[in-house]
Design goal:
Layout: H1 37-59, H2 64-99, H3 103-117
Helix pairs in contact: 1-2, 2-3
């Protein structure tokens, strides 16, 4: 049974490295982070272990400051994964969109996700182009 493909807005050559704003059919799509996939999965596995470690610390009622230090390390590890994905997205998806003259939607999307990540409000959808 075939997988569900995303509806396409514009034709894109096979192997294109973008998605979302003008989504692509599944057979023509490759995420920009694909080349770093093994590294990202490895990092996320370590993060998963850190979360379990923090849970054990809480179960053992360890010292609050030690737990807070571990949560800071967890946050830093997760941020590093996010930065890698963001870098790949900008270098791949956004660059490809720019080459096709479609960068505005991708740039707006990146700015919005960075604003949310930093706890800043996303700009209104009705802003001028």
């Amino acid at each position: 049974m075939p997988t569900t493909a995303r509806p396409a807005k514009a034709a894109t050559p096979a192997g294109a490295t973008h998605a979302r704003p003008g989504t692509e059919p599944a057979d023509h799509f490759r995420h920009s982070y694909s080349k770093d996939k093994a590294n990202l999965v490895r990092r996320l596995s370590r993060i998963e272990g850190q979360v379990r470690g923090i849970a054990r610390m809480i179960e053992r009622e360890e010292y609050c400051v030690d737990i807070l230090q571990q949560t800071a390390a967890l946050r830093a590890a997760l941020d590093s994964v996010g930065i890698l994905i963001l870098e790949d997205h900008v270098r791949g998806c956004v660059r490809s969109a720019a080459e096709r003259g479609e960068s505005d939607a991708y740039v707006d999307e990146v700015v919005d996700v960075v604003r949310r990540t930093l706890g800043r409000p996303v700009r209104g959808a009705g802003r001028p182009a």
